[in-house]
């Protein structure tokens, strides 16, 4: 993602768009038996975009309401020696194709039925400075690989350049927290999103709201630091809404907050810190109210 | 915890015991207004034990079925400059007392009602070699601070010495994943557990089974390494039960496994890797079958 790529589409603040995406290998892999030497591995995690949103300026926050995620009917997963927790134990790249039943929301894994949890792996705005590869997450969003970025959720993304220059891709039909093998069930899709300028939230990192509560997402080389910073950023977000002194907020985070993991396999790792909705209600914080109506 | 502490109780394989515990400061703190200079902070995280279990030998695995956790009606939480994610931002130790309603399973935090999730912070066997402070987790168990160690779950602990030399303490009335502030809602309790030699599981790290599935717990200085090793240990546990080659197991873990966090504030951090029950069913793995009957 980059501020220097020309927009492929210009829309107005509040418009809804339906975005077609290809899988994380740009649909180059069609069979587990093909010659992988013909695959260009540099074409990883393509995002569709950038989209220029009129009326959204540098310094704003972009509110992305995730609508329908329409999956294609065939996807793939991969493991290998180049990445993932088990990379030192796997000698060569292994690829498996999956037929996906979008009506029943299931797929099969050697006779085991697995339910799908369709989600968006790469989603973000153009980063502040130098281009960031789509494989890498950061304050701009990018490859956060969060299974909570799914239908019905609202994602808030910092805007570094006029128009936001938004893009998304790398949809997964199924993934667990950690994405420990390096890939989810990678698949092409059509994703509908509503893009608008956020009215009430100010954040330096991506924030996600769903039916359960609010999640602060921070990416860092070290998971330890990503977790710690996600807590600090959540406290920063919460503090203006309460008279509690800092020690009491920290204590409250310890009792009701949850340190969670998006992924541990991308060039930077991503943690999310979650607090439940009743905390937002108690402090009259109105981010994402439309979720509750 | 240590192999050199004399047992306080000797029981038979399969016996059930009710264990009284004091809070993580040995009940020294009775009011937020007391003089904390009188508190001996070295008396942290006391565990009740060791209990010698007849018929359990070094090299076995101890199966601990967690029964009732009966909380006292008053507990406390603390934050401060000596530990926790926010330690660099909090100038002096702050302590808050909590009245706990065990009938309604709630407590209050400045007008906010919080539901309790009673859990055991410290639980383990005598470690293999040198004594390990109760504040520190490890392969023997110890201060794993896992909110899933609660009523109705089964914990499997490696046994390093004859009789297991089991102990537990540091009960929390409420805690979120991460325990980011350094303490949960610390409280005295009576905990009923059944202790027996495990028949069917072989593990080098604590394993927990609940209604949802199975969790592998690994502690390490770095959360990054704790997560990675928890995945490797889970695969080691699963591998004998399936004909899938390693790359396919790694892929399956990526799709249906979940990398989760126990705590990030103890001398070692603890990660857990979770796989859902249907995976155990599919591979005819019968750990903890009694949970399902």
Keywords for this entry:
6-stranded mixed sheet; homodimer; 8-stranded antiparallel sheet; 293 residues; 11% helix; mainly beta
Based on the structure, what is the oligomeric state of the protein chains?
Answer: homodimer
Spatial arrangement of strands, main beta sheet of chain A: 2-14-4-12-15-16-18-17
**Percent of residues in helices of chain A:** 10-25%
Percent strand of chain A equals 35-45%
Which consecutive residue ranges of chain A, at least 5 long each, have pLDDT under 50?
none
Mean pLDDT of chain A comes to 93
Number of strands of chain A: 18
Query: Rg of chain A from C-alpha positions?
Result: 19 Å
- Biggest sheet record of chain A: 8 strands, antiparallel
Q: Figure out the total of helices of chain A.
A: 3
Secondary-structure element order of chain A, N to C = EEEEEEEEEEEEEEEEHHEEH
Structural class of chain A: mainly beta
Largest chain interface and its two residue counts?
A: A-B, 58 and 58 residues
Distance between the termini of chain A: 34 Å
Estimate the global geometry of chain A from the Cα principal axes: globular
Word description of this protein:
2 copies of one chain form a homodimer. Chain A has 293 residues and is mainly β. In chain A, 11% of the residues lie in helices and 38% in strands. Chain A has an 8-stranded antiparallel beta sheet with strand order 2-14-4-12-15-16-18-17. In chain A, strands 1-3-13-9-11-10 form a 6-stranded mixed beta sheet, with no helix packed on it. Chain A has a 4-stranded antiparallel beta sheet with strand order 5-6-7-8, with no helix packed on it. The mean pLDDT of chain A is 93. Chains A, B: This is Acetamidase. Chains A, B: InterPro entries: FmdA_AmdA. Chains A, B: It comes from Salinicoccus halodurans.
